[in-house]
Amino acid sequence: MDQMSRRNWIAASGGILFAAISHRAFAFPPLPAGRRSADLPSVHAYLMPDCDCCTAWVEHLRKAGFAVTTEIATGGDFTPWQKRYRIPPAIDICHLATVGAYVLVGHVPADLVRQMLGEQPRLLGIMVPGMPAGSPGMEGMGRAQPYDVLALHTDGRTTVYAKR
Fold it and tell me: Are residue 48 and residue 13 in the same domain, yes or no?
């Protein structure tokens, strides 16, 4: 009986340890207010004036550990930044941001920003076209819908980077 109890204890301990390690490896829980992960570059976001979803997306990034500064796009005109960051003019923009050498357009999830920064692909950045319900900043805006996160290539092409 003592032998069996020891085995059960070891198995349970191993299971708890595995769960703790896998949670740390695959999830990015929010950091306490005012704290950021030291290994993350700062994000600078350009926002529409008085846009709640833009503000909610910025908060999503902050909760994921990013330090975020913001700038309001006068009159909601993103043309200067689209030219500066080589974003095709056909892409409608609610907000955009820069992080490291990359640009983020739309409601891009923070975990995919981290993934892109870790992979360092040869891209302009990543984007979420439109304003899909359930995407970061668009929670509670109706029933969550599946959406694609697109890679913005330097030649103007887009390809699917991830599906949500």
Answer: no
